[in-house]
Amino acid sequence: MEFDRSEVEERGTEASMAHVIFGREYPEQVDAIVIGSGIGGLVCGNLLARGGMKVLLLERHFMLGGYCSAFRRKGFIFDAATHNYPLLGNPTTLTGKILRELEIPTEWVKMDPLDRFHFPGLPTFAVPADFSQYLEKLKSWFPEEAATVDRYFAEMRQACLYGLLYYFKGVDNEQARRLERYTITEKLDEHFRDPRIKAILMADAPHWGSLANRTSYLFDAMLRFSYFLGSYYPRGGSQKFADDLGRALIAQGGKILKCAAVQQILVENGKAQGVRIRTVSKRFPQEYVFRAPVVVSNADAVHTYRDLIGEEQCGRWMIDYLKSLQPTYPCFLMHMGLRGADAAALETASGYHWSSYDLTDAIRNVFNIFVPTHYDPNVAPPGCQIIIIQKTTPVRLEEISDWAAHKAAVEQRLLERLREILPGIEDHIVVRLSASARTSYYYTNNWQGARLGWEMSPGQLGDARLPNATPVENLYLTGHWTQPGGGITPVIISAQRVARMILKGCLTAADLAAQYFAFRSAAVTHHVERVPSEDSNEFWPHHPLSSSAK
Ligand SMILES: Cc1cc2nc3c(=O)[nH]c(=O)nc-3n(C[C@H](O)[C@H](O)[C@H](O)COP(=O)(O)OP(=O)(O)OC[C@H]3O[C@@H](n4cnc5c(N)ncnc54)[C@H](O)[C@@H]3O)c2cc1C
Q1: Where are the domains of the chain?
Q2: Which residue has the higher pLDDT, 427 or 5?
Q3: How far, in Å, is the centroid of ligand 1 from the Cα of 79?
């Protein structure tokens, strides 16, 4: 895909003037501006630059990566959020190939087992990275369900293929249409009787940031199969991957400006024309305008429409509509740097810890332990280890007035459980930090601190998810708030789609968006009346804890 530069030159977008910001020059005019350096923004910027465009990527934080970043404390490198990167180390896969084409040098450490599941009354179930071994293991644990295991996975394999065509390649097909309405639990209930095997088959579903009875079976099938093509950890940690993408963009002539918060997307005559930014500096915040005929927002969708485009451009109904959609639940994180702990015991304790077979346990008690030092010991000082605990927390930011108390309460519950699983662990702690929903929001601007954008429920995927094009001409969305969905693999696909639309000069993109929004706008006119208010529990209509969540 090559960008037709002559068109841009005719429109006079060749760089002429430059702003000097933080002592460096940045051209006032470029071919494309990308807002946000999440993986969606970074990959999209790279693809556009490879296509011949002059790209400026703007990030409000002082680090790249959004949810794929890391921070250092006392010599420990902690992944801020993401740790499992399916497919990326396998160059024969859709997304692995993109990274190879972009010449991203990140080294990937393969995970095997893929995960561990701990349930009361069952030995730990370690998921082998080899698919046939996985099936054999399930059958040997549940011999009376053996034939069903074969049937279930034969159907899931088909679902995965048709789902890939449908969600990732945009190829409509009857099979996907038939399966898209199912949730994970509906399909499990259709096939299995034993609650223990059902629990094992959805044990990692909390990573979807919603309950398995609300998560799309088809989307889950796609990603679940992908794990067996390789799930990876980036050597050096998540920041290494984000920084490698940043360096690749610069190598292609792109520019990256960090500590630059976009305040407004400039729209003239219905077309995106550039952005106004404010530098993030305590002492001297300054405003600048950058111009470009193409703008891509990798930022949160509510933020993009409400704050950057504005009600006057997109209509009040749009903001109301977005708020009527269901975001994923945020994730509470505890990061611990340890010295001299038993590495084998940590590894055995890793994985998802359930306290019952009830699916709602996923947002009450379940937590996940990840041990990055198992994959790369160099992310900790010699003789030290890291554990990261993740717990889905069904909270909304405006519901919590005392964040210190909230953090302390969740920490205490997690520490109690951790002491049972790893006795004496506290004697080894060198550093301990935690991050709440508000921390996620603060560092990434993700609305409600949502883990993966909108919930991956059947009604919020496919055509029903926000399109990559917007009603503003030449303004696009990439990342987990738009199609195809949340998680690293989907956001890379969204970046690829957007880059293709732009580089191919896809004239129908805006038309498609117009159709989508015209339809939603009509639906919203009567829908808005029953949009749950932000401060009501109604927002989580299916949340089993909604009356006690406050
Ligand atoms: C705790 C946790 C664990 C996860 N684990 C996994 C996992 O193991 N595997 C997996 O596949 N997925 C995982 N996910 C999900 C995955 O991380 C996300 O779906 C994905 O990283 C989102 O990428 P994105 O491109 O949408 O951008 P984001 O990561 O959301 O980044 C958006 C960027 O835009 C910037 N920005 C926002 N507003 C502005 C503005 N006005 N001006 C400038 N910049 C702005 C932000 O600062 C941020 O850097 C996890 C998520 C969480 C929270």
Answers
A1: 5-67+240-326+451-537, 115-227, 331-435
A2: 427
A3: 12
